[in-house]
């Protein structure tokens, strides 16, 4: 992972308080290459993602066809989730997306954009957007309209 990704993610993650802490769990990508079936790689990744989910967590899968929340809507969703006291697990797929069972396990689907982003950039965008939503809930001046 490029250094800027680790630094960007770490910067936003450290800004969040313990009650809204981010814990990154990296799942190894499935094998891809000439002569290998990418569907098998997606299925293997999906199995590993599902096994890594915390028990009882509310699962949100990142999908292009998911809800395109505004910052204010994301903040409201985050506020509801923090108030419910359940862990929240965000699933990010590999280059070919998420396996069907991951989408099926998800309680909600979230789209960051209709654009396609490189996997490392998604990590930074997620951390920043979660920090932005939390800061909005707190009345912190980070989020300005």
Q: Key terms for this structure?
A:
145 residues, alpha/beta, three-stranded parallel β-sheet, globular
Task: Give the SSE layout.
Layout: H1 3-15, H2 38-52, E1 58-67, H3 71-84, E2 88-91, H4 100-105, E3 108-110, H5 119-138
Parallel strand pairs: 1-2, 1-3
Helix pairs in contact: 1-5, 3-5
In words, what does this structure look like?
This protein is 47% helix and 12% strand. The protein is an alpha/beta fold and 145 residues long. It has a three-stranded parallel β-sheet with strand order 2-1-3. The longest helix is centred in the C-terminal third of the chain and has 20 residues, at 119-138. The protein starts with a helix and ends in a 7-residue tail after the last helix. The mean pLDDT is 91.
The gyration radius over C-alpha positions equals 16 Å
Quote the beta fraction.
Answer: 5-15%
First and last CA, distance:
32 Å
Approximate helicity band: 40-55%
Label the overall shape.
globular
Number of helices: 5
Largest sheet strand order: 2-1-3
SS-derived structural category: alpha/beta
Succession of helices and strands: HHEHEHEH
Uncertain ranges: none
Mean pLDDT: 91
Number of strands: 3
- Sheet with the most strands? 3 strands, parallel
């Amino acid at each position: 992972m490029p250094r800027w990704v680790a630094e960007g993610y770490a910067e936003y993650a450290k800004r969040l308080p313990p009650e809204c802490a981010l814990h990154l769990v990296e799942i190894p990508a499935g094998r891809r290459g000439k002569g290998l079936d990418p569907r098998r790689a997606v299925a293997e990744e999906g199995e590993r993602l599902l096994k890594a989910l915390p028990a009882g967590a509310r699962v949100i899968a990142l999908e292009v066809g998911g809800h395109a929340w505004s910052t204010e809507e994301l903040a409201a969703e985050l506020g509801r989730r923090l108030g419910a006291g359940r862990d929240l697990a965000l699933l990010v797929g590999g280059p070919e997306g998420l396996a069907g069972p991951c989408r099926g396990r998800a309680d909600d689907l979230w789209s960051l954009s209709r654009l396609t982003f490189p996997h490392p950039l998604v990590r930074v965008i997620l951390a920043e957007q979660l920090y932005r939503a939390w800061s909005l809930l707190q009345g912190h001046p980070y989020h300005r309209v």
